[in-house]
Amino acid sequence: STILRKGVKLDNQIQIAHNVEIGEHTVIAAQTGIAGSTKIGRRCLIGGQVGIVGHITIGDNVKIQAQSGKGRNVKSNEVLQGSPALSYSDYNKSYVYFKNLPKILNRIDELEKNYSEQYKNETENH
Fold this sequence. Notes:
CATH class of the largest domain: Mainly Beta
CATH superfamily of the largest domain: Hexapeptide repeat proteins
Helix content: 25-40%
Strand content: 15-25%
Structural class: alpha/beta
Number of helices: 2
Shape: rod-shaped
Low-confidence stretches: none
Strand order of the largest sheet: 2-5-8-11-13-14
Number of domains: 2
Largest sheet: 6 strands, mixed
């Protein structure tokens, strides 16, 4: 059976499947889906539009940012973001690289072009 412990706060349009347990004073924002047999700890904050697969355990004091997807167990006190969800700091580092990917690819193309020209000139001179 599904259990919502004391002080749980739920927003609108949330799907909570069978055999889910949500710990005391956990808050879950709108449009979140929690699959069956998932155990969520105490004092967790789960943002809107989060997807959580079934048969996992989420520790106490976990924060999952909006629009994240979680497919594995989560230790207590973690802050997660993204899909698939990563630690908040890893997500932010990855996002910087992702945002700059076109510049990085242009730089690689330029380096390869310069290397090819240099290699061609060296082989012609020998």
